[in-house]
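Final paragraph of the annual report: two paired records, presented back to back.
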Amino acid sequence: MKKNAGDICFFAGLALAFVIQAVCGDFPEEVFAFPVNAAVLFFFIVLLVVLHREKPSSALCRYLASARTSLILFVCLALSCLILGLFSQTGGDLLGFRHVKYSWWFVYLMTAFMANILMVLITRPFRLRFLLNHLGLFLALVGSFAGSPDKSSVKMKLTTDPTADMYLTDFRVEYSPNGVPSDFHAEIVVDSKNASLKVNHPYPRTPFVDIYLLDYDKASQKPAYCIVELVKQPWKYVVWTGVVMMMCGAALLFIQGVNKERRTV
């Protein structure tokens, strides 16, 4: 498969994904909840490994492992993320596609990008920093993309009613010098335990469920309720592992680069 032929096939697949999106609507993400997503991911990895072992010099293997393919996918995904950021926040409609991240073309791009990263990992010589960066990126993508069907969230209004399973015991608001609220804290009881909530500082109810503080009763001097969100993220540790690996890989790349420069002086 020549470079141009490979690009033509790639963009033809992308065009087909747009057509499927226009005809069928959003990608059925809920169908791929656990354990389906785990099974698909396993067979996806096995398929690429077998393909490389059986036909390492095939046109498909070479195209998936090429730097050109990585660049094309990176640009396409960067544009897609830009579209996602612009339209998901405003509730806008793009060519009839309300949920960019659940669209067939975004799923196609993410799948191709993961295939590209995995094939690069398989075909390149082993280096620790290379492994940390690429495997970390692969795990981060897997946790956020393949794990997306398992993520769920529920918003709740907590009052001071002590008969509820989760209730508010105290709420404090901090104000800036001009009188505008700058921060707020909530003391709650959940599962018979006292917990403190602060903006961007969730309380881990379980290893996979976090409670986030969203809003509060602004009509009263002493807030009578607050709004919290329970977020379930079963794959979050996969994402964290990937992020930590990339940070270690970046640090190792910097250290080895500095040492290399010192040796050449």
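The closing record of the year follows.
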Amino acid sequence: MTHDIIVIGGGAGGLSVASGCAQLGMKVALIEREHMGGDCLHFGCVPSKALLHIADQFAAARSVARFSRAYAALQGSLPAAGAASDVEMAAVNGRIAEVVGAIAHHDSVERFTALGVEVFLGSAEFVSSSEVVVNDRRLSARTIVIATGSRAAVPPVPGLDEVDYLTNRDVFSLPKLPRSIAVMGAGPIGVELGQAFRRLGSDVSLIEMAPRILPRDDADLAAVVRARLGAEGISMRTGDRVERVEKVADGTRLHLSPGESTLDVERVLVAAGRTVNSDSLNLAAAGLEAGRGGVIPVDDRLRTAVPHIYAIGDANGVLPFTHVAGAEAGVIVRRVALHAGGRMSYRTVPWVSYTDPELASVGLSQEAAERDGVTHRVVHQSLSGVDRAHAEEATDGLAKFVLDRKDRVIGVQIAAPGAGELLGPALYAVTHRWKFSALRGAMVPYPTMLDLYGRAVSAELAPKLFNPRVRGILRTFFRYRGTGPTGGAR
């Protein structure tokens, strides 16, 4: 064997495996065919958040016009379709590149070489279950990890290949802002980018086959985001399918069903799911077979059908999040380098849709609990009950707490500005199976959005504590003279 372990793919999961195993003394071969850091760094998580931040600044500038004569030119609604935009895309792209560059050194070839990893830049192909070829060099190892990530899935819509459609690969380097853009897919990627381009000044239409946008998020929370998108002038066509696409003089025409309507836009962004980068690996030579979307099935130990070959991150299709890939990498390092065993549990995986407001979730949603037949109840807390939310014009937000029959927290979903940052207490509650009342145990500074936890618990406990029966008992034992609220007050 030439190495102890071969890692195919230099994204978040692959880099974590390579780093951990090398630092524990294993001889590691890391193969990356394009960019160290993977899609997340170059075409996904990082550039998208930089773009969203810039778009948020444009939205904030328009909002502050209400309070300053200096910003009067920005007063009013977002630009109409086709209106001139003052967005300088070269500057936007430059800022995105700066952010990527500031992070990229963590994932560089030089850094990993210094950690003891042997890095190969090229495409890997299996020749047996223990051997791969890269750049005409044959490598072998007792353990192989597939961490090849994914790419945008392009639906087989007639005519789509004949137009210059966009994906996450090229949407962060546009030479100019499109006057109008149709987004095929209203999941997190489609909605995030659609909202960003609308705030920059594009006319945006979201097209989603499902009955609602953000179909994997809690329906009540998705409705909060939908209302915001509608207020910002985004057209949302749910339950619609793009039947065919054709090139027209000013851009692209989409033919939609049902209803046989058409939509003319300058550009089309495809955000209709992901396809695993497994098609060039020659999996058959390793005794493996990919499933739908190129997914490589694994067990809870992350083993494929060939036990010494593992698949992590987007490659196994379980939950395509960067932080999940990192957690899976930890399992691999424990199992392979430390021989300590370990399995992957997805019970407490959090995720965030980086819309405005953000949607953050951990554990079971109300829909998931109902689907799985879990006995539960749901506590709602509107942000209209949180003082900081009033100060920040965020009272349309909502938090939902899913509790089991013993009042333990089994899921939390939040729609609020910075919901991902607010999720911390919920992560501990779901992970450690806290009672709902424990969420009120810590003192939080006032006024902060964190007050939503205490407000939710207080509202739930108040009827159990502040009622005539309790007052009667306390008057009997302690001779209190008060009568309590009158007129239905509480």
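Residues 313 and 324 are 7 Å apart (CA to CA). This concludes the annual technical report; the extension proposal builds directly on these records.
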